[in-house]
Amino acid sequence: MTVKEDRAKAVRRGAPSGGQSRGDRRSSRLRRAAAKLHRDKALLLLAIPGLAVLLLFQYLPLLGNIIAFENYEPYLGIVQSQWTGLANFAIIFNGNPQFLSALYNTLIITALQLVFVFPAPIALALLLNSLLSERVKKLVQSVLYLPHFLSWVVVVAIFQSMLGGSGLLDDWLRSNGHTTLNIIGNAGLFKEMIVSQVVWKDTGWATILFLAALSTIDVALYEAASVDGASRWQQLRHITLPGLKSIAILLFILRLGNVLSVGFEQIILQQGPVGLGASEVLDTYVYHNGVLGGQWGESAAVGLVKGIVGVALVLAANKVAHLFGEPGLYQS
Amino acid sequence: MSGPQRRKTKRPSTIAGTTPPSLAIRSVKSVVLTVCCAVVIIPFVGVISTSLATQKQVTDSGGFVLIPNQVSLAAYQAILSGGVVTRALGISVFITVAGTVISLACTATLAYALSRPGSFGHKPILMLLLFALLFTPGIIPMYLVVKYLGLLNSYWALIIPTAVNAFNVIVLRAFFMGLPPQLIESARIDGASELTVLRRVVLPLSKAALAVIGLFYAVGYWNAFFNALLYINDTSKWPLQMVIQTYVVNNSPLGGQPPPGEVIPPQQSLQMAVLVVSVVPILIVYPFLQRHFGKGVLTGAVKG
Fold it and tell me: What is the pTM of this model?
């Protein structure tokens, strides 16, 4: 094939055989790189627009984190603002009640999500996989995937019109002489509400990866197991669940990276009726104090630490997965 | 939803030798699945019915209607005859169309540029892309970048920052790499430039993958709320999701006077009609999206 020949030619052109000094080798490597650059310049040009977006909105913001170390004033700009070192990070350690409340709420919601949101699609995927009728399975899938494609604004509006103080449930209770519940406006139920909305919206869609993993399990394993007299429960435990292990671990590691992000859009939409005490989480704290409150440096510091904790957790979890002989997210 | 098991009993167990599950287990399963589906469907029915209800019905039922006995399109006429919702709808359509075109162009070119291992800069660019999957930039630095680029209060702030999704690039790249290399080779031997190869050979062969990725981008732009909240202060530039937040979630009254002599639709119907209008485009593209769910376009990158 010509690509290979091309490449081989470029290599031959760049690297004459025989003994060569270090300088020769370096210049030959340069020449080879130049030949490659010449050959691939059209490809590189094609990469520019996408790469530019990536650099501008994924990597340039990393530089913007500098303001976490500054007493940033918008009218002075990043360069002119006063350098304050780690002073902004004190907010994390000096027991600021507002910050601690946001941290506490975030951790509770994350814990609830790990317990309820994470396993739900595994259970649903197992249930769907055990259906013998393809048609029923398809029908259920197309219904349950749908909420994933709705925006959080719409999901929150739907929940309000079902469970809010003037929603469907309370209308029904009222007309039957019961006391109304107003679940949406109840600060004590806010975290449970947030978690159940995530379950409602994303459980169906999240089964897609587990179903893909289930479809790769060799049917012969089940046949052999049933010939050996394994019950359906034993087959589930010893064939199906091990088949889901790798993908479950992979998704769990990815989830850990977001352990301190519990849904900015979803939560900021619903803080009004319940108040900030019950509903402020780290992301909304950064938004309220930074973008709205002008505490740029401190908020950026909180955001930066949050990001670092996420990446560190992913790396650590991946390491642990390797120790247990699992492929994890990536191999080193 | 009627009796999923009835159909099931006609089919033999798919795996040789295994006994089919007992009747008790099958009924538990169908009850669970029926409840799951009902929990998703009933809110939709409530929203659509209320949007079509008349004032009398809304008052009778105390607010929301599950089964309308009279159908009125007054709410739709009111929101679609100009005013805040109509304008926001136009803005959202523009952002979705322009954004999807830009996203697909950037994603396809980057994916194609990365589809030939061993090319110049292949590894570092790929690493940049993969690392972008690991972290999301913070809210404050992102806001500053948009501000310094002069994009605050501009529609571009709703498009460019989310134009390239690293995961989509990786999925499309995997798809391109799976195309027969002979086709690309022969086009290049015939003297086609890389751009021509991409346009004439690669893209026509990747219609299904492009359609799915394009639809995902489109749904993302259509549903985006966070970016508008952060970057757009000018209420006359609000996309639909911001309008829903203000008038439905926060319950502010819709501005504007109804035309004289017309029936004023109930507030609930107006709100639910706005929701329906924002969901209908998704319901329209949903069957197209769904056709590709099982085909491994999206899960392929994960498996391999």
Answer: 0.86
